[in-house]
Amino acid sequence: MKAIDPDLLLRAYSIGVFPMADSRAADDVYWVEPKKRGILPLNRFRLSRSLAKTIRSNRFTVSVDHAFADVVAQCAASTEDRPDTWINPAIERAYADLHRRGHAHSIETWQGGRLVGGLYGVKLGGAFFGESMFSRESNASKVALAWLVARLRAGRFRLLDCQFITDHLRSMGAIEVSRDDYVALLDSALGFAGAGSVSEAAWPRADFFALDVVPPPDAADPERRTVSGPISGCTIVQLLGQTS
């Protein structure tokens, strides 16, 4: 099974293309550029009352990048509702490489010390490309998505790419846009210096970890930051209630 070059993978994302496999056992991957693209506008995320209540209750413990490989493995696992998957071993290894390079991240939801839900995706400039999510308990993946949106808002991201629309995503505010509109949004999020440029120096200063740090209230230097305490569900709900 041929390995996917991680640099090629990042270049593909920069022009709106991503890989898939026909099945878990497939040897090859193919490159996809949908005519209609699913995105979730960060200022249009729909936080239902029931989901807000679940988040405030802290019924799930949420972490970031604590179990990236496990999240991908769970997304690739067969279930009763989905006996096969598009994530083959070559794709799994490629995203593990991107994670080691700091370009791929996971959000995990835990209950009683057990991983019960989560998602993973790729960060590039001011864009986050959601790849897949899973849930083994009711609302576990919804909670992960809510925390992701709050994190992207705090980090000044401009685009959350969902690839394809599902009823689950649509209920939370995802919409479909044309390929041309998507490319325009993507170029804006990446801050291209010129056609075909993928120079990271030109990208907006989106910070995936901005939610984890806060300025000390009495700091002489307002730019100095320190690691905050555990983020509560109430904080996440408050962030999601703010409009951009």
Reported CATH architecture: 3-Layer(aba) Sandwich
Q: Tell how many strands the DSSP assignment holds.
A: 11
Low-confidence stretches: 193-197, 216-228
Helix content, binned percent: 25-40%
- Overall pLDDT: 87
Structural class: alpha+beta
How far apart, in Å, are the first and last alpha carbons?
45 Å
Please state the CA-atom Rg, rounded to the nearest Å.
Answer: 18 Å
Q: What is the tally of helical segments?
A: 8
- CATH H-tier superfamily: Leucyl/phenylalanyl-tRNA-protein transferase, C-terminal domain
Walk me through the structure.
The protein is an alpha+beta fold and 244 residues long. Helices cover 32% and strands 23% of the residues. The chain contains eight helices and eleven strands. The strands form three sheets. It has a seven-stranded mixed β-sheet, sandwiched between helices. The protein is globular, with a radius of gyration of 18 Å.
Can you describe this structure in just a few lines?
By secondary structure, the protein is α+β, with helices and mostly antiparallel strands.
Properties at a glance:
single chain, alpha+beta, 7-stranded mixed β-sheet
Secondary-structure map:
Elements: H1 6-14, E1 18-20, E2 30-32, E3 36-39, H2 49-57, E4 61-64, H3 68-76, H4 89-100, E5 104-111, E6 114-124, E7 127-135, H5 140-154, E8 159-163, H6 167-170, E9 175-178, H7 179-190, E10 213-214, E11 226-227, H8 233-241
